[in-house]
Prior knowledge:
The structure holds two protein chains of two kinds.
Chain A lengths: L1 H16 L2 H25 L6 E7 L5 H10 L1 E2 L2 E2 L1 E4 L9 H11 L4 E5 L3 H4 L3 E4 L5 H22 L4 H7 L8 E4 L2 E4 L3 H33 L2 H6 L4 H38 L10 H28 L3 H11 L1 H8 L1 H6 L4 H6 L6 H11 L4 H29 L9 H10 L1
Parallel strand pairs in A: 1-4, 1-5
Antiparallel strand pairs in A: 2-3, 5-6, 7-8
Helix pairs in contact in A: 1-10, 2-8, 2-10, 3-6, 8-10, 8-11, 8-16, 10-11, 11-12, 11-16, 11-17, 16-17, 17-18
Chain B lengths: L3 E12 L2 E12 L3 E5 L6 H8 L7 E6 L2 E2 L2 H4 L2 E4 L11 H10 L5 H14 L15 H13 L5 E5 L7 H16 L3 E6 L2 H5 L4 E6 L2 E7 H7 L4 E7 L11 E6 L4 E5 L6 H10 L1 E8 L3 H11 L6
Parallel strand pairs in B: 3-8, 3-9, 6-7, 7-8
Antiparallel strand pairs in B: 1-2, 1-4, 4-5, 9-10, 11-13, 11-14, 12-13
Helix pairs in contact in B: 3-4, 3-5
Amino acid sequence: MTAKLWAVVRREYLERVRTKGFVIGTILGPLILGAMMIIPIFAMRSGSKPLKVAVLDGTGTLGPAVEAALRDARFDDKPRFDVQPVGPDAPGGREAGLKKAVLEGKLDGYLALPADAVAKGAASYFGRNVSNRLDLRTMQRAVSDVLAGVRLAGAGLDPAKVKDLTRELDLKTIRLSESGEREDQGAAFIFAVILLMILYTSILMWGNMVMTSVIEEKTSRVVEVMASGVSSTTLLTGKLLGVGGAGLTQFLVWSLSLFGASLVMAGPLAGTFPMPEITPLMLVSFVLFFLLGFYFYAALYAAIGSAVNTVQEAQNLAFPVMTPIFIGMVSFPAAIEAPDGPLSVTLSMIPGISPLIMFLRIVVLTPPTWQIALSIALLALGILGVLWVSARIYRVGILMYGKKPTFPELMKWVRHA
Amino acid sequence: MNDKAIVLKGIGKAFAGHVAVKDLSLEVPRGSVFGLLGPNGAGKTTTLRMVMDILGPDTGTIEILGRPADHASRDRIGYMPEERGLYPRMALEEQLVFMAAIKGMGRKEAEMRLGPWLERLGLADWRKKKVNELSKGMQQKAQFVATVLHEPEVLIMDEPTTGLDPVGMDVMREAMLDLRRKGATIVLSSHQMEAVERLCDRVALINRGEKVLDGSVAEVKARHGKNTVALAFEGDGSFIESLPGVAKVSDHGQYVEVRLEKEADPQPLLREAAARLRVRRFEIVEPSLHDIFVETVTARGEEAA
Lengths: 417, 305
């Protein structure tokens, strides 16, 4: 019995692992992952060159002040604007000349202050790229300060003093954890989302693979030969262990390279680069929740695969079954917002949703140990329940060809198997 | 030691709405070639699936090689289902060793036994090829190897003739009879009775899930008497049907088979035929299993499929 189970596990494992897709995915995965994490951080905090801008002053008075304010404007302690003089009048006016300069690439953009800029508090920026939010926000602040200064002076107040008195709060966020403090500049958020995406896609992808392989066994009719040698339970168990093992192999390569990269890069990049921290707890729960989530959904997918004849038929049945993981996916922003709130805690206990939400809570903060333990215990119970139902559907389904069964028919299989 | 390879006692199986097998009892003696015959839908495949524990019987008991059927005893059976199936993306060699493994044979031993089988069936050059790169005929042979590699004492083949070209059929029949000489029991199921009746020494005919008759082929035929005449002729033979003593005429193209009524003498038929036709062949033959089947079923007031 064990020897047979092992033979099935071995076959399933090797069949997955030997494909080109697996090899490429396993190697390229960490590279793409790294790029996904590093590029946005680089882009956000980039040391890209300051923007070449000009100020088209319609007020006649504010020009120099605004130019000076832009020259002084800084982000991350680096000047962001290289203010260019407005060129000589081109035919059609100065604005036409600036437009031409922007289009020719001599300028990145220009700021147009209308004559009533102070009164209306309005200005326009024309540029080839207007989606660089951080830079535009910096510009908005600088110009806004100048305009406010003018207004304050008009009201008889000293702008410098007002500014000093109303200084904005500079809120630094520092994540506390057992391994020490670390300034967190939003990277943890991005990181959590990325890990969540990986978890979500991996669970679905490997679960789906179980379904496809069950359908393939039916289409190639090999399942009857198999059933004459091993029980349907052994076949299902072997498949889940084998495919799960292949998934785990890939997932381990991914998570360990992620962990390794964070260790290697934390040192040299400390301070200059917000490498998110990966704690051993995070790593362990990443892998654990992948495995548990996989088994929960793979068992369901196997039952679906056994009940249908083609992958197309399976999609309709698969959709309702995947509802929990979809709920987990759409509710994650709420869970990041309030990881200890009643909604998050509840969701992190429901099998099927918990692999995503409990993991997310572990990444964002460390929930009480009893909650983690309870979530895992409930999930394990959920897996057993799902396996029990699935094994019954599977036993009947693998030898059924023809019409796709309806939901009540499936229930009948469960009762009578 | 029990001399029965398989004993079925009163097994029955019903699926939602219809009875597939009803109170079926059979005995397959060790070392025999046993034919389980009947039209499509008679319940042959369902019966074999119950023997293999792919389906559980609703009623009755199954004994294999002298003991109640269990996993261990089923490992001693090689089963080739009607719908052949192999893993399409697995290399032939690996696949066959795997198939032996799920029947309880170790990898080493299976690998050792594989070579001669591949040689014999002309698959040796293909051992590293994936199954979906093999031709249909080769896949059939591969399936056969998958069925016998673990050295079963009982070989069950459901519709063994489907999808085989004559050469493939010969190779397989040779291999099968070879196993039998070594003491294996062979069970063949088929709806094409002519194709397997020559191979079998015992048969059971089933229809609509019930046994119609069984016994050794000689016995079954003797029970139905030597009252069939094979007649080949030139001319219009349509009058034969209306001759006294003639029960039924079936046209086989090259010749007609004339079934006489019980106790009827064939001599008047010979005289009449010689007088009105140019007779090329007149032979008193045993009735075919097919005819026996149809006759028995009709006699029971049932309609043959």
